[in-house]
Give the backbone structure.
Amino acid sequence: MLELYHNGMSSCAQKVRLALAEKGLDWEGHHLDLRAGETRTPQYLRLNPRGVVPTLVHDGRVVRESNVILEYLDDVFPDPPLRPGGAWARAQVRLWNKRLDEGHHDIATATVSSAIAFRHQFLALGEEACEAAIASVSDPEKREQRRDLIRNGTASPRFRTAVRMWVVLLRDMEAALGETAWLAGDSYSIADAAYTPYLTRLDHLRMLGLIDGKPRLADWYERIRARPSYETAMTRWFDPKYLALMAEKGDEEWPLAAEIAAEAA
Ligand SMILES: N[C@@H](CCC(=O)N[C@@H](CS)C(=O)NCC(=O)O)C(=O)O
């Protein structure tokens, strides 16, 4: 049996749901409310000591880290394959997904999401609860990042750095899609699954203007959304309150993001 601890709007959980959908696998879900601190309970921390989603439990054995889970699912359920054959092509998949772990998730995406939209969820809690939410982050650097982004939003220098990282990533994706139909080869792979939530996040934050002038990437995003897995693993789980917040605040902050991106291009 496959069990997934996840959250509807979590990028890392979305990519795992995409792989499960692409493979047509049945799974039992445990949906955790991140804002209510449900990833920080003693029971969940025993499964995932970092207190993050997703966590996969397969026949009682725990697998953590979304990119590791993607490879695990493809190893255990190889049909249909979600990695190309051949060591070099597989190395390309790993390189793409490693990049998310090396900062694109924790720095670039977490920063634009929090600075533009999610900070307002914390501010709405009131001063005491907001401070408690900041203090609940155990990693000191991440705690400081949360504090800075909640307090300063897009005025934080972190926002500028994050938008620049996005510019470089999107340029590299456009170049890769000039070589092959999908990110890491001529067939859909777990690299495409892994990046789908990130383009979607840009879209939700009204930052999709960053792919203007990138026709291959725009076409990739369309092809990704046309796959049945997008409905099953993404759309069905979207939280309307998050979507409304991201759209409203994204529209307000887009001129600044566009200005930083133009400088970085
Ligand atoms: N490297 C981890 C990162 C997981 C992660 O950061 N998950 C976020 C959601 S995308 C989370 O659970 N955050 C907990 C919180 O916001 O309280 C992975 O890829 O699984």
Summary: The chain has two domains: 2-76, 87-113+154-264. Strands lie at 2-6, 28-31, 55-58, 61-64. The first strand starts at residue 2 and ends at 6.
